[in-house]
Amino acid sequence: MSKEKILKGLILLVCIVGLYLHIKTGFKIYGYAIFYFFTVLSNIAVFFCYLLYFIIPKKNNIIIQGYILEPILLTGMINWFILVPTSIKYYGSILPLFNPSNFFVHGLIPILVLLDWVIFSEKGICRKYDPLKWCVFPIVYSILIYVRASFGNAVFNGALYPYPFYSPHDMGNWDNVAICLILLSVIYLFVGYILYWLNRGKVQKK
Questions:
Q1: pLDDT tens for the 206 residues of the chain, in order
Q2: Is there a contact between 117 and 50 (Cβ–Cβ < 8 Å)?
Q3: Prediction pTM value
Q4: How would DSSP label each residue in 21-76?
Q5: Distance from C-alpha of 89 to C-alpha of 24, rounded to nearest angstrom
């Protein structure tokens, strides 16, 4: 078995275990609303992408992979740059984040998927407009979150939104929501072009 298949198989296994633990734990708190969270949906996307790797030709899978890499990286960035400082502030330690139900889906999977992209993705196939296309996932997600909230059903504890930066109540007003979402969009697009740059190597020989 090749190193690439071993890594992709490991990602698939960790994703399955991580989703099982995270959904099992979260279901006790949020019920079916656990499936409204970006973390769960981005990890489900990773699961299907890597499952397809073993079913469809590699070339097609690499094209698909670009659409799930950024969402899972956003999940990882939220963990390492937002949840870590928050955990230190409230718990005095980052150890709670290393609970398997949290660490697999927030911390480990994003790192493994990025590693797989850097090492094994076919070089030179990304085009300059691809990072814009990769924004589809969070755009569709955000639209669905606001459509769902318009029906007035709380996600948990009376909150209409799974994350406070979507909520005008938590952010103070819609202007602050817009500023936050624009900032996240700029960061997301910037990361996309970093990935594009990483993929700009010489096209691999067949």
A1: 689 899 999 999 999 999 999 999 989 888 888 999 999 999 999 999 899 888 886 665 666 677 888 899 888 887 777 767 766 766 677 776 778 888 899 889 999 999 998 888 888 888 888 888 888 999 999 999 999 998 877 887 788 988 888 999 988 999 999 998 998 889 889 988 988 888 776 444 44
A2: no
A3: 0.86
A4: HHHHHHHHHHGGGGGGSHHHHHHHHHHHHHHHHTTS-HHHHHHHHHHHHHHHHHHH
A5: 27
Residue whose pair of structure tokens reads 């079913």 in the numeric block: 55
Residue 156: beta bridge partners?
159
Whether 51 contacts 12, CB under 8 Å:
yes
Q: Is 100 helix (H, G, I), strand (E, B) or coil?
A: helix
Number of residues in the chain? 206
- Per the listing, tokens 């502030």 go with 89
CB atoms within 10 A of CB 125: 15
Phi-psi group of 63: left, alpha or beta (phi > 0 → left; psi -120 to 50 → alpha; rest → beta): alpha
* CA geometry: angle 163, 169, 171, nearest 5 deg: 65
Inter-axis angle of helices 174-198 and 58-78, to 10 degrees? 140
Looking at this protein, which amino acid is placed at residue 140?
Answer: V
* Residues 26 and 105: beta-carbon distance below 8 Å: no
Q: How far apart are CA 144 and CA 90, in angstroms?
A: 31
